Amino acid sequence: MHTAVYKRVVLKLSGEAMQERGSRENISPQIVREIAERIKEVRDLGVQIGVVIGGGNIWRGLSASHRGMDRTTADYMGMLATVINGLALQSACAQVGVETRVQTAIEMKNVAEPFIRGRAIRHLELGRVVIFVAGTGNPYFSTDTTAALRASEIGAEVILKATKVDGVYDSDPKKNADAQRYDQISFTDALSKRLQVMDSTAFSLCMDNKIPIVVFGMQPSTNFRDIVTGQKIGTLVCD
Question: Is the separation of the CB atoms in 56 and 15 below 8 Å?
Fold first, then answer.
């Protein structure tokens, strides 16, 4: 029997996590359902889960701005992409019997609730998964920053950042076969080594509010459950 070591967590997912590798499809219903099943497995352990999801599978505001689009407009489009992903995850969660609420930083009454801290915490206490979308509601901020901000606001004990690789490395493991993975690293060392854990704003929020980050790979599918039950998987970034 698995026992959780965390009571409340924020799961940070990239938009690309919703795509099937090698497919041109922006959202794979099968992949999203698999994510929902992993969330259910952890929720059933009594863990309160907030989810922050990116929109890079649909739109990347920063890259669009580099190609000449106004950055503010591009970023708002990226925020709307996270709403699409959040609704897809909500639908998949409903299919596996997990009650959710989507809370948005940009008001859209017919689609999602506005983000209200007290209401989000109450949903979590009632066993609902809260999916935070539309970023912070402001351009120039990433969904990493959203994860750090929401984790701070709701009193999450840890941010679990799911990535394509199995942790934080001293160099890009895709380019350097000799890249070394860290089991644990301090905020200070990660900053001094310029490791790409999160963007600097998100990282500073986590460091200032003493919220550890676990960077881990999406595969195998048991990783999310194993981390919340205390197994050492991926890279722990903490004080």
Answer: yes
Phi, psi of 12 (to 5 degrees): -100, 120
Q: Are 28 and 91 in contact (CB under 8 A)?
A: no
Q: Where are the domains of the chain?
A: 8-238
Whether the predicted pLDDT of 110 surpasses 90? yes
Output the six-digit token pair for 237: 């970034």
Cα torsion for 144, 148, 153, 159, to the nearest 10°? 110
SS3 (DSSP) at 104:
strand
Whether the CB-CB separation of 158 and 228 falls below 8 Å is answered with: no
What's the CATH superfamily of 8-238?
Acetylglutamate kinase-like (3.40.1160.10)
In whole angstroms, how large is the CA radius of gyration of the chain?
17
**DSSP state string for 156-198:** -SEEEEEESSSSEESS-TTT-TT--EESEEEHHHHHHTT--SS
Q: Please indicate, yes or no, whether the overall pTM of this predicted structure exceeds 0.85.
A: yes
For 16-63, the DSSP string reads: GGGSPTT---S--HHHHHHHHHHHHHHHTTT-EEEEEE--TTT--HHH
Per-residue pLDDT tens digits for 125-147 = 999 999 999 999 999 999 999 99
Tokens representing 22 are 């090698």
